[in-house]
């Protein structure tokens, strides 16, 4: 993730605006943790930095209906 210009340098999220849901004292996507993100106390409105997410669907599952 990239830092948000408006959030400054929060000591908890390090300017990302999001923390790890399982480890709330660490920024979102820390180390190899795969937990979801929670908004940091410095980001009460939940400002989101858009990112591209790629996913693969196994061929045997087909489209979802």
Query: Which term fits the overall shape?
Result: elongated
* Average pLDDT rating: 78
- Counting helices, strands and paired strands, the structural category is little secondary structure
C-alpha end-to-end distance: 32 Å
Give me the count of strands: 2
Number of helices: 0
Characterize the largest beta sheet: strand count, sense, and whether it forms a barrel. Answer: 2 strands, antiparallel
Radius of gyration: 15 Å
Major sheet: arrangement of strands = 1-2
Q: Report the helical percentage.
A: under 10%
Q: In what range is the share of β-strand residues?
A: 5-15%
Order of helices and strands: EE
Low-pLDDT residue spans: none
Number of domains: 1
Task: Provide a descriptive summary of the structure in words.
By secondary structure, this protein is mostly loops. The protein has one domain. 0% of the residues lie in helices and 9% in strands. The chain has a two-stranded antiparallel sheet. The N and C termini lie far apart (32 Å).
